[in-house]
Amino acid sequence: MNASSEFGYVLYIEAAPERVWHALTDADLTGDYWGHRNVSDWTAGARWEHQRTDGSGVADVVGTVVTADPPRHLAMTFEDPAATETSRPPLVTFRIDPHSATSRLTLTHEHLPTPADHAAAARGWPAVLSNLKSVLETGHVLSRAPWEMTDDL
C-alpha cells in the first residue's frame, strides 16, 4: 500500500452509539452538519448519494452501502459520479464503539487513488467530523462550517 492510499481518523463523542449512527445516516441531520444530505435506506447493497442542500438534488458523491450493522459499523463506496469505473473504488468505513459513557468513532477512507485525494480527505474528514461532534454534544453546528475556514487569522 502506498502512503497516500488510506486516511484514518479517530474521535470521541459524548453520545451513545445509536445517536452517532443516527447522525451519520439521517439525511436532514447530515445536511445540517455536513452541508450535504446523505440519502439511502442504509441497507447492504443499497445506493447512497451525498446530495447538495440547495434543493438541486445534485449528488457530488455516490456509492453503494457495503456493510450496514447499526449502530456499530457502516461501510460504503465513495465515488465521484462523473468518474470512470475503477476496479477498486474508494471505501469509507465508520466504526462506532462504546467507550465508557462516550462513543469512539473511527473513520477509515481507503483506496484513495492519488496524493491529492489523500490531502482532500485529510482536510475534509476532520472538518466534517468536528461539526458532527459539535452537533451531537451541543445541539448545534459550529458557527461557521470548518471546511470554509482558512488558517488566516
UniProtKB/TrEMBL annotation:
Residues 15-137 form the Activator of Hsp90 ATPase homologue 1/2-like C-terminal domain. SUPFAM superfamilies: Bet v1-like. It comes from the Bacteria. Gene3D superfamilies: 3.30.530.20. Pfam families: AHSA1. Signal peptide: none annotated. InterPro entries: ASHA1/2-like_C (IPR013538), START-like_dom_sf (IPR023393). Belongs to the AHA1 family. This is SRPBCC family protein.
